[in-house]
User: Fold these one by one.
Assistant:
Number 1:
Amino acid sequence: GRILAGDDVIRGTNDDAAVSRLAAVNLGYLTDPHASLFVRRPQKRPPVINRGTYTRARALDDLIQRFLSSGDGDPRTKQIVSLGAGSDTRYFLLKQAGKQPGRYFEIDFPEITGKKAQTICKNPALAQTIGAYTLACGGIELHGADYHLIAGDLRNFATDISQKLHDAGFQPDAPTLFLSECVLVYLAPSTSEQILRAAAAMVRSGVYVVYEQIHPDDKFGQTMLQNLRMRGIELPGLTRWPDLDAQRRRFKECGWGDRCDAVDLNHYWDTVPVEEKERIAGLEIFDEIEEWMLLSAHYCVAWGAKDGVKNA
Ligand code: SAM
């Protein structure tokens, strides 16, 4: 294949996420009629990966749902900012379910947002969900009434990106959920701290939700890191936030400490209702219980809240 370097490799992780998501959708783990629009060559994934993709999506959807129904209970008074959104389809799914926030912002590298903007323009189901929109910056940005696709480098969050958010109608007074799903771990620790602090400074109240790898040091973690390294991918974030305690501490230190917590996917899986677990168990043969528990111990959902947002 093509030789990728630096940021290209990081951008490539979005294709991976999209392929895994489609694999899980095709087997019935998740429902997402748009997942296939972001994948050129579908691939199957092993059962543990499918279950992981499902649990990750469900854990984050749960937190987002709780945020959207918190406070006055009205999603429209709130906003969501997804940093490193990639091919995420949540905005479209939420809006089609009538549960979208008043504003939804997605940020990624221009190479990614440009492709996403094109996909949206070519697909009536996506375009009509947004309603009237305009393309900007030569097609790498897209702005609708409640949806904004913004191009930029998260390493310049505090300067460029926060300005672009304000230009696009970001509301400092609206309860805001920031989401980084498998994103911060690729950045230098000082950079993600800057992002968290800058995000906290942008809002009166809100919650910051992170999903990423943990536990680099045990055998499974070492193998996970080695496999990534072979593809040229490093996870610098793991050096500073290797476990659940460190993840909680990060929120306390970076302006999101009014309430914060971190759980791994094993813990989250335990909270999935038994009927749903049975449905999942019926989707494909699943013998890899031990591997599943190991994998799940290596991914965490962590969040920190700043004032005012209840039940997040
Ligand atoms: N959040 C999406 C999901 O979970 O499906 C995509 C996750 S993908 C693993 C990581 C995403 O973060 C990629 O789309 C990548 O381009 C983006 N990203 C990483 N570093 C970035 C940076 N410095 N600026 C903008 N985007 C970045």
Note: Residues 88 and 190 are 26 Å apart (CA to CA).
Number 2:
Amino acid sequence: MTDYANILVEQRGAVTLVTLNRPQSLNALNSDVLADLSSAFGKYDKDDSQRCLVLTGSGEKAFAAGADIKQMADMAAADFFLQDFFAGWQTGVVATRKPWIAAVNGFALGGGCELAMMADFIYAADTAKFGQPEIKLGVAPGMGGSQRLTRAIGKAKAMEMCLTGRMMDAAEAERSGLVAKVVPLASLLEETLKTAELIASMPPMAAMVNKEMVNAAFETNLAQGILTERRLFQILTATEDKAEGMVAFIEKRPGVWKGR
Ligand code: CO8
């Protein structure tokens, strides 16, 4: 367990479990939380013993109820601009090269929904609720919500959610393609950790490359994405893990991975 003021970090074998830990404010996200997360995600990315990360919220009520409204209420536009407010989420969290999963255990609103969507995929408790209610505060998503939500669930629902600020429950989120799986709240962590352990058992460089390829689908046109995939595939064929994976298959035994 590493010491942070706003998050808990625990290594469980090859899986890093990070828990947002400001339950008194429903895990609202402020600059200190971002600093803690950036440090924890950075350490995870550099630690060869860690191969998947799970991010969840403390308590049963919220994953994160948004960016911290109390921190931002008195800030002027110039403060947001000069600090390039929210830019740190890109460098501190999104830039993580290894796989990570969001286990959404309750409200994921505003910045909370945006943080969950930064994950490689989301598992949700049946009690989870997603929304981009910023419009009710006179603002709009600022951590990628308008872009990632639209790519995840399409324009019709994303526009409706941003313009009305309504919440989407877990069943609708799964139907709409926002979450990979919905499980009862009581088994959310166990189920997510199980999947994380499965990912952690894969050849780690191949996991990073698979992540990069799928993400390329959001950043590029089809021809460029397919070229990116082919080139990354070709790079993987040069790894020791590729040689081991094929031999292990033929010898009917599990692969032993070197991560290179
Ligand atoms: N920021 C700061 N504190 C919060 C936040 C938040 N986003 N959400 C909840 N809290 C606090 C509450 O103020 C309350 O604290 P206190 O006990 O000191 O009053 C505590 O958490 C518990 O919350 P509630 O009493 O409200 O709990 P309820 O069960 O009644 O309601 C809700 C739960 C529905 C989740 C409700 O808390 C809520 O609507 N929260 C805000 C959701 C929201 O609007 N999120 C989007 C935030 S905006 C954003 O993410 C990006 C843009 C921000 C720009 C702001 C510019 C000024």
Note: The two ends are 28 Å apart (CA to CA).
